[in-house]
């Protein structure tokens, strides 16, 4: 497996800058998880307050606003655990470069949700994240400096 890791630089070395960006994004998400664990994100209804505050200002479809108001605001603690768990899984996936394509496709949906429920000040940031996740999914950014190259060599498919 270590040989495959070094081969990845040789054969898909043009993806090295994208791999550094992928690892940085993984570090960013890991840092967000640690900040939320240290704060009281899981125990105080900050998620519900954020959704209730910015949902009327959102440009999301009406069915999405109704879903957010009826389900996520009322069950905020379960969704806070889901958000934290997904961010941790995304961080680990991006850092080690394993199953980057499916995780980045899920991250696109995750980023769209945050784009709809966040402050309009952060709209450009989330649009940039959306573009990066789409590029990671399109290129398969885990094949360079990651474990995806090992599986890409052995088992061809769309996930690697």
Keywords:
8 helices, 72% helix, 160 residues, single chain, elongated
Tell me what the structure shows.
The chain is mostly helical and about 160 residues long. It has one domain (about 1-155). It is built from eight helices and no strands. It has helices spanning about 1-10, 15-40, 45-55, 60-70, 75-95, 100-115, 125-140, 150-155. The radius of gyration is 17 Å and the shape is elongated. The model has no long low-confidence stretch (mean pLDDT about 85).
Topology:
Elements (H helix, E strand, L loop, with lengths): L1 H10 L4 H23 L7 H9 L7 H11 L3 H21 L3 H18 L5 H17 L8 H7 L6
Helix pairs in contact: 2-5, 5-6, 6-7
- Number of structurally distinct domains: 1
Please give the alpha-carbon distance between the first and last residues.
15 Å
Total helical segments: 8
> What kind of sheet is the major sheet?
none
- β-strand percent reads under 5%
Mean pLDDT: 83
- State the helicity in percent bands: over 70%
Please give the radius of gyration in angstroms: 17 Å
Helix-strand makeup class: mainly alpha
**Shape from CA axes?**
elongated
Low-pLDDT windows of residues = none
Number of distinct beta strands? 0
Q: Give the SSE string.
A: HHHHHHHH
């Amino acid at each position: 497996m270590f040989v495959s890791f070094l081969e990845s630089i040789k054969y898909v070395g043009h993806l090295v800058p994208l791999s550094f960006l992928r690892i940085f994004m993984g570090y960013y998400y890991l840092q967000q998880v640690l900040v939320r664990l240290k704060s009281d994100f899981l125990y105080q209804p900050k998620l519900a307050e954020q959704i209730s505050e910015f949902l009327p200002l959102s440009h999301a479809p009406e069915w999405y606003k109704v879903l957010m108001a009826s389900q996520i605001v009322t069950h905020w603690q379960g969704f806070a655990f889901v958000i934290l768990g997904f961010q941790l899984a995304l961080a680990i996936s991006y850092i080690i470069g394993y199953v980057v394509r499916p995780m980045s496709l899920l991250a696109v949906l995750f980023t769209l949700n945050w784009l709809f429920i966040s402050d309009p000040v952060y709209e450009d940031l989330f649009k940039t994240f959306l573009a990066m996740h789409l590029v990671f999914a399109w290129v398969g950014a885990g094949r360079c400096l990651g474990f995806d190259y090992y599986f890409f060599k052995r088992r061809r498919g769309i996930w690697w």
